[in-house]
Write the structure tokens for this entry.
Amino acid sequence: MVAAASLAFALSACGSSDSTEDAKIDPTTPTTGTPGSSGSSGTPIPGTEDGGAPIVPASTAVRFIAMGDTGTGDEGQTKIANAIEAKCKKDGCDFVQLLGDNLYPSGASSVDDAIWAERFETPYTAIDLDFFAVLGNHDYGGNGTGNDFPKAQNEVDYTKKSKKWKMPSHYSHFVKGNVEFFELDTNSAMFALAGTQKTDVNKWIAASTAEWKIAAGHHPYKSNGPHGNAGNYDGLAIVPIASGKDVKAFLDGTICGKTDVYFSGHDHSQQWLNESCSGTELAVSGAGAKTTELKGKNASLFESIELGFLYVVIEGKKLTAEFVDQNGKIEFTHTITKP
């Protein structure tokens, strides 16, 4: 009973405080997948069919915003939306990457839910860009427990209704210039339902010829925020599911050592870790609407509890990432240069 109570508390607290076939290449739609059973537990979560990764002509640079934990509909979200609008007008942006918990507190009840206007369309009206999004625990319902599995499909289906919302399936990948992006569903991994996803993502990464490979998911591999590191989320290492041990195993088995950077949210702060997962750099950008404390001990190059977002420019062999606060101030710049 104690373990069960701890699990329910931990899952409900997450963020609430403050395809089995080979991918086919198609020039118009992202390659997608749906969460599947690990083979030992659970049942596949319903989703959409596999598609193909779009081939976008290479440009001088790929410029995008990365941020998570945005969908509050409050003043914090509006402040960051205004800061993004100003940044993109000044320096240029190609798209926005949302890192999950897109609609608080429990996702959308349908594609016609009024929450879409209140917590997505209206705050970002002035930002005329595509918003690629991954799923977070709140998007799966249950006030953050993330176990109302069919609910996430509403965010997938909204892609057909919105001009800017882009989530072709629970997980997917797409190409922009010399960069391939891998959109992960880490909430499914929390519940050991990422077996098919793991197979698909590994195939996609192995087949990628992009110079840069970027992974995006909701749950962090390492973080100095309250949720902490995968495998010991919220200090609950011995509690099944809540600890995130299956998230850690999923990331270890897919993107770690195979992608250049992993962007995540979940903890409401800005962090660039000075630790990696087998060489993959780790950044947390979950301050898109609200913030929480930083109390972890992982080595970091930068961390802040200011509202803000990541602005990333990839040109040739150089990646430049800036953490920008709500006032447009660049708080930190990090550069990765390939040989």
Notes: Helices lie at 2-13, 75-91, 115-121, 153-157, 186-190, 195-207, 245-252. The chain has seven helices and 15 strands.
